[in-house]
């Protein structure tokens, strides 16, 4: 387990640097913590960036400039070996919010001068003490809504600044029992097998109950929202989502792993599907679209109890011809 602990230490050290370094030091600090071939994936409009310099200039420096006195409020932190590549690579997950005073414009979103929270989750691949790859997914529409914008039609579930685990035990800084993580990963894989096909022959609620607790919480992204209990999740997200799409591809992940009672995965994209109408109040387009997703899970006993989801809705809708971010100046305000 020493390699997992060393990987956690490397990621934690970079996190501290990114919040405390002066603006003109960020590229240097990032370069010291990453490999020369560092690859970074982020949500639209950032997409794929290469090298510490590009990541610093395109993402971190503008964000730090917009969110004054930024701090990382971390709710989940764990490490594991990637099942997708036969456990050859080691990854570290961090999830929570980047909080600061929204004092300068970011991505065309006007500042509020008030506290703002950028909801994020990242997967970091660590090699020999250096970060070689990052997938950092963040909820930009959530920040837009905090700034008073309404980028989407009314969502089916609740809009919240999302909390961490109900059990408050998501920061796995210390070594964990490997058997517990294997149990968590097996349950996640069973859920993927059940829900990834959309044709189990069971009712939706029966299908969900195979792997989810009755009082599950699905912490969805802004534009969809969070929902609680199997019946409400089925009504407020899963059923409308399935009804609004056809031609869902098979699920593809770049990393899937677990430690302790926590696990998750990401893809680039996870899957594609074609909107036929109704999803998020939008009309159908009959254009296949990509879903870039991170899912993080908490297991309780033999069921999944909580799920935090990050979906690049800006990228998906831009593929459908709707530039949500580009139209931000036209949106009604609360």
The share of residues in extended strands comes to 25-35%
Overall average residue pLDDT: 94
Q: If strands are numbered along the chain, what order do they take across the biggest sheet? A: 2-1-6-5-4-3
- List segments where confidence is low: pLDDT < 50 over at least 5 consecutive residues: none
| Order of helical and strand elements | HHEEHEEEEHHHEEHEEEEEEEH
Q: What class, by secondary structure content?
A: alpha+beta
Structural Rg: 19 Å
Distance linking N and C termini: 49 Å
Count of extended strands: 15
Task: Report on this structure.
The chain has 334 residues and is of the alpha+beta class. 28% of the residues lie in helices and 33% in strands. It contains eight helices and 15 strands. The chain has helices at residues 2-20, 26-33, 52-66, 140-146, 178-195, 204-209, 230-243, 313-319, and strands spanning 34-42, 48-50, 67-81, 90-102, 115-127, 130-138, 212-219, 226-228, 245-246, 255-259, 262-266, 271-275, 289-291, 293-300, 303-311. A six-stranded mixed beta sheet has the order 2-1-6-5-4-3. It has a six-stranded mixed beta sheet with strand order 8-7-15-14-11-10, with helices on one face. The chain has a three-stranded antiparallel beta sheet with strand order 9-12-13. Helix 1 packs antiparallel against helix 2 (26-33). The longest helix is centred in the first third of the chain and has 19 residues, at 2-20. The radius of gyration is 19 Å and the shape is globular. The model has no long low-confidence stretch (mean pLDDT 94).
